[in-house]
Amino acid sequence: MTFWKEEHHTLEGVMSFQQCHNITEFEQGVSKIVSSHNWFWVDRNGDVGYYHLGWYPIRPKYGLFHRLIDKRFPLIGTGKEEWLGIVPFSELPQGRNPESGFYENWNNKPRADWPYSEAETGQLWGEGHIVVRIQELLAADDSITFDDMIEICRNVAYHDAYGTYFKPFLLDAISHVGGIPSDVVTALETWDCYLNDKNGDEFYDDPGYTIFTAWYDAVFTKILADELSPIVKDYSYSLLLHIFQANNSKLHLRYHNYLDGVPLDTAIVNALHDALTTLSARFGTTNISAWLSPVSMVDFTELGALSSPVMPYMNRGTYNQIAELPRWLNSTNSTPPIAANVLPPGQSGFVDSFGTPNPHAYDQFNLYTSWQFKPMLFTINDIRS
């Protein structure tokens, strides 16, 4: 790592935050950080800031024998292709008080042209990344309330990004090629691209979701399985999206044989036929109203003797915190922020010698799964009460 044995600079920067009174002082402190992190600042003056930090190596453009260096691969270790330095703080992605009124991040690249990403990970890392939904929700209303922030978190947690970005291609292909039963088309059209279990029966409410996910598995097999190993399926969303976008894609693909000569719409609909055959066999009926998928369940990693609780899947950070700061213009120095957080399954994983968990081991789990938060206490009186 670039910051090998220089980690103390990050500690120095983080410790300096405790003495910061404004965004300028924060920027001076955050500039010392050498490890890769995103940092946000908000204060009572109304200033907001975003800083993407880390020591990123400047690699040479050409290497040994004047070869053009591909930054996705290691440099030759002979000493002939050494780093030229570290990207200076002033050139790192950062900003203050954006015109949009907000900054947002969900482990996405700090800006579209940032070349120092480690790898493609997570849902639709490229153009269809989940951060796009956050941007849309924040931009929809100039006045964002405390409750709105909870709703944005909930919206993202149950949003199926694959459906949002790929379902239009599927429906267009069906309209061009035809041959798909009307009840299947209606189910796909009426599914809103969310994981819905409104009646709480532990099955998703929409057969359209079941059909779409089976189709996505089938279309990956049709288009990419002969080029890529199935083990990279979870990292191939962006590539498939670029293939579907064809000439409208921002990334022009150099390889053109993914479809093996089959028109794209035909390949998409053929995959849907395969999916419908699979689903009919799985559920033992062609009545698609019975094609309901069970709610996905996830658990926390078990550590030590404390057992791991299980909960319905949510695309949601483990620690959630929302804070609202009063402006100096409308408050006094003693006016505390309003803030709440939740940390499942709890704050303590201690298990005593009798095998009894600490009372705080699971005390926030029900809050988390029911979209509730506990208040953060800022004054001695609040804590005492």
Present the secondary structure layout.
Layout: H1 8-16, H2 23-30, E1 37-42, E2 48-53, E3 57-58, E4 85-86, E5 94-96, H3 131-139, H4 146-158, H5 161-177, H6 182-190, H7 207-223, H8 237-245, H9 264-283, E6 297-299, E7 310-312, E8 320-324, E9 338-342, H10 365-369, E10 374-375, H11 380-384
Antiparallel strand pairs: 1-2, 2-5, 3-4, 6-7, 8-9, 9-10
Helix pairs in contact: 1-2, 5-9, 6-7, 7-9
**Overall geometry:** globular
Q: What's the average pLDDT?
A: 89
Number of helices: 11
Task: Give the full name of the CATH homologous superfamily of the largest domain.
Answer: Aminohydrolase, alpha-helical knob region
Strand content: 5-15%
State the gist of this model.
The protein has 385 residues and is of the alpha+beta class. 31% of the residues lie in helices and 10% in strands. The protein has helices at residues 8-16, 23-30, 131-139, 146-158, 161-177, 182-190, 207-223, 237-245, 264-283, 365-369, 380-384, and strands at residues 37-42, 48-53, 57-58, 85-86, 94-96, 297-299, 310-312, 320-324, 338-342, 374-375.
